Amino acid sequence: MIITVQQHLLQQQRNVSEATGRFTWLMHGITLATKMVESKIRSAGLTNILGAYGETNVQGEQQQKLDVYANQALLHCLGLAEGVAALVSEEDANPITVDLNPDNGKYLVVFDPLDGSSNIDVNVNVGTIFSVLRRPEGTEANVGDVANWALQPGYKQVAAGYVLYGPSTILVYTAGNGVFGFTLDPSVGAFVLTNEKMCMPEQGPYYSTNEGNAHDWPEVYREYIRRITSGALGQPYGGRYIGSLVADFHRTLHKGGVFLYPPTKKTPGGKLRLLYEANPLAFIAEQAGGMAVTETGRILDIEPTSIHQRTPFVVGSMVEVKAFKDLVAEMGSK
Length: 334
Ligand code: P6P
Fold this sequence. Notes:
Blueprint: H1 5-15, H2 22-42, E1 52-56, E2 62-64, H3 65-79, E3 84-89, E4 96-97, E5 107-115, E6 126-134, H4 146-149, E7 159-165, E8 169-174, E9 179-185, E10 190-195, E11 206-208, H5 219-229, E12 238-239, H6 245-255, E13 258-261, E14 272-273, H7 274-287, E15 291-294, E16 297-298, E17 310-311, E18 313-316, H8 318-332
Parallel strand pairs: 3-5, 11-12, 11-13
Antiparallel strand pairs: 1-2, 3-4, 5-6, 6-7, 7-8, 8-9, 9-10, 13-18, 14-17, 15-16, 15-18
Helix pairs in contact: 2-3, 5-8
The structure holds 6-O-phosphono-alpha-D-fructofuranose.
6-O-phosphono-alpha-D-fructofuranose binds near residues 244 and 245.
């Protein structure tokens, strides 16, 4: 007997007293948009949807055609969803307002429409990442304030999730009551529940990072990789790096281990974005029994100062991430 994501959300909604159905509508917007993206990705090699779009985004990155399509799909579907006040996209410099009426617009959705899109031309997994925030209490319908509404620490997220477009298309999300996994069943065109209460193993077999940057890392990161690969945590480690954040994270969630993107001289504040990459994945990691930190503390405690800000990112199993925190303390105390 299958349970679709819509049925799951309606069941969950019954357990949440103040749920008004707006959250369920919002999640419908996300699942519909990602099914549209999935359909485009599946036929990417056969239609003229691959390659560069010919413009750069606010990050200064060359937009791929599928980046633009995914962004438009999410803006369209979430723009129709009840309860959405505004949207923040990795592809757009400023937030997009939807319904600023305080009686209707209760949520902000922050998303990376298609992360890792540079991998599409070589047929490697890509993903959509999203984070749901409550509109701050007492905010007036003032367009100029909307960007500030999104500047909330990650522990305030209402929900977070991702869709991984791989051999199968999966949706993983949390609303603070555990992590749930769904698989798109093409025969019915619905995400069906395939993993209840996903848990990250306490320790795992892999470390995952771009070691091509190691010469540029702060010393503590080099020492950390030296230690875990020399057996300091009581076992050998294999290296796995796909270069597509959602795929590297999903493997870490399932198998355990650690993923890290340290600061480099080129990106001293880190490469990954706080609001729509690190925060949503950190929320999922913690809900699954893992951890997510920087050298200075918990990812979810960072007070954001701009909607596109970046952060160093160390996420994974309790054993590996705690070992990183202990090393930072050990080296910091030297
Ligand atoms: P690098 C993809 O461009 C991305 O934003 C993430 O998906 C991925 O984890 C990271 O960058 C890869 O970066 O510098 O290793 O190519």
